[in-house]
Amino acid sequence: MCLALPALVVERRDGDEALVELGGVRKSVSLALVPAAAVGDYVVVHVGFAIGLLDPEEAARTLALFAEAAEAAR
Amino acid sequence: MKYVDEFRDGDTARHLAERIAAEADPARRYAFMEFCGGHTHAIARYGVASLLPANVRMIHGPGCPVCVLPIGRVDQAIALALQHGAIVCTYGDTMRVPASGGLSLLKAKARGGDIRMVYSAADALKVARQNPAREVVFFAIGFETTTPPTALVLRQAAAEDLANFSVLCCHVLTPAAITHVLNSPEVAQWGTVPLDGFVGPAHVSIVIGSAPYEPFAAAYRKPVVIAGFEPLDMMQAILMLVRQVNDGRAEVENEFVRAVGREGNAAAIAAMAEVFEHRESFEWRGLGTVPDSALRLRPAYARFDAEQRFSLTYQPVPDHKRCECGAILRGVKTPSDCSLFGTVCTPDNPMGSCMVSSEGACAAHYAYGRFKDIPVVAA
């Protein structure tokens, strides 16, 4: 039920509709809940609606945190 | 896939596991509840539990919306199709939830009910537009993730003045359920189910933010770490929980900062607030009646409320008497404690709700973990 995945916004269409791409699959979803989303952004898509934006800087920071743990383990 | 694969790296997972093992105090036990079905699924699928030291235990919580949907609500949806002749649209997982009389929505469809699986609430609206002579009901279930789409669809139906569309609203609220778990007798009477902290939902928190968990963490002195659904997110969250317990802290921390903020998604919260209001009480499968834990349509949207439109009354129905879903959802029992598990109750023929969705504790254990229960005997 809670399956939601990060997808790349590739095209904005009429109204709130947008074309997103996820692992090569393209699909039309609604951006009504994330009106600020632009082409090139990653959105979290759930039941045909983008419910949030992904922050690339914060994602990089989380990955850096994992790298730190890996370093500490060595 | 970007933002997916890099959070599934096996080597990093092993390093995180070493950190957890190094920091977990061997003299004590840690029990953390992952509230969300998405986490239950990730733990089972990626073998997260097997990477944890023996004194760190994960307990499945009631955060799978399919699992907590009571029989009586599915019965209402079936009645709409079979007795009222309505087209009932709903999400795929909901179709297989066992209902009364050996039925499910899927079996009611085989009996001639016009029941359709939709991917999105917006698709239900399309069905209503395409069938103006028929009543179309969207059987809406889910936590705060699926609620904003339902709200938007209701707003759209009102704008178009659609005369044949309504919603059977079974949307439920996360913070109320976590609080209820902590208030349940098994947990309140300390000792039977000690819970040292919670892994907070990922996608629900995108919508509601991390702030709603703050009063809860303070009142119950329980740490909450919001985590993404990938295995590394889980491992990092468990490490953060171990650290909080070791430090004696009970704070809300956010591991899923790439998608979750403190305030949540303002547009989604506004849409929900416009269309829905709190129900005084709502029955959850396995948890019983939980006060202020669900939503219903506001009076301004009463004409789209299927319960009012079809004068439905709610009739609670007990679960199968040997089904342990209720105890499993409260963390009191595990799937292998249930005598139906893997025998009469399987994903192909679920008896209880925890076996329906792949995010249910029983279905996840059946798919990925059941052979671990069998001791290996050398030939």
Please trace the helix and strand order of chain B, writing H or E for each element: HEHEHEHEHEHEHHEHHEHEHEEEEHHH
N-to-C series of helices and strands of chain A: EEEEEH
Tell me the name of the CATH homologous superfamily of the largest domain in chain B: HypD, alpha/beta domain 2
The percentage helix of chain A is 10-25%
CATH class of chain A: Mainly Beta
Our estimate of the beta-strand percent of chain B is 15-25%
How would you describe the shape of chain B?
Answer: globular
GO molecular function (chain B): 4 iron, 4 sulfur cluster binding; carbon monoxide binding; iron ion binding
Organism (chain B): Rubrivivax gelatinosus (strain NBRC 100245 / IL144)
Family (chain B): Belongs to the HypD family.
Pfam family, one (chain B): HypD
Which descriptors would you attach to this protein?
heterodimer, A: 74 residues, alpha+beta, SH3 type barrels, 1 helix, 5 strands, B: 379 residues, alpha/beta, Rossmann fold, 3 domains, five-stranded parallel sheet, four-stranded parallel sheet, globular, carbon monoxide binding (chain B), Hyd_form_HypD (chain B), HypD_2_sf (chain B)
Task: Please provide a brief summary of the model.
Chain A: One of its GO terms (molecular function) is iron ion binding. The complex is a heterodimer of chains A (74) and B (379). With 74 residues, chain A is α+β, with helices and mostly antiparallel strands.
Structural account:
The complex is a heterodimer of chains A (74) and B (379). Chain A has one helix at residues 56-73; strands at 5-12, 17-22, 25-30, 42-46, 49-53. Chain A has a single domain (6-73), classed as SH3 type barrels, CATH 2.30.30.140. Chain A has one helix and five strands, in the order βββββα. In chain A, 41% of the residues are buried. By secondary structure, chain A is an alpha+beta fold. The longest helix of chain A is centred in the C-terminal third of the chain and has 18 residues, at 56-73. Chain A is elongated, with a radius of gyration of 15 Å. The mean pLDDT of chain A is 90. In chain A, strand 1 (5-12) and strand 2 form a beta hairpin. Chain B has 379 residues and is an alpha/beta fold. Chain B folds into three domains: 27-41 and 49-57 and 182-254, Rossmann fold; 71-173 and 264-310, HypD, alpha/beta domain 2 (Rossmann fold, 3-Layer(aba) Sandwich), CATH 3.40.50; 324-369, no CATH class. Chain B has helices at residues 10-23, 37-45, 71-82, 105-110, 121-130, 147-160, 174-183, 185-188, 203-208, 214-220, 231-247, 266-275, 306-309, 325-329, 361-368, and strands at residues 30-36, 56-63, 87-90, 115-117, 136-142, 165-171, 197-200, 224-226, 252-254, 276-278, 281-284, 288-291, 295-297. In chain B, the strands form four sheets. A five-stranded parallel beta sheet of chain B has the order 2-1-7-8-9. Chain B has a four-stranded parallel beta sheet with strand order 4-3-5-6, with helices on both faces. In chain B, strands 10-13 form a two-stranded antiparallel ribbon. In chain B, strand 5 (136-142), helix 6 (147-160) and strand 6 form a beta-alpha-beta unit. The mean pLDDT of chain B is 92. The chains are: A alpha+beta (74), B alpha/beta (379). At the A-B interface, strand 1, strand 4, strand 5 and helix 1 of A face helix 1, helix 5, helix 6, helix 9 and helix 11 of B.
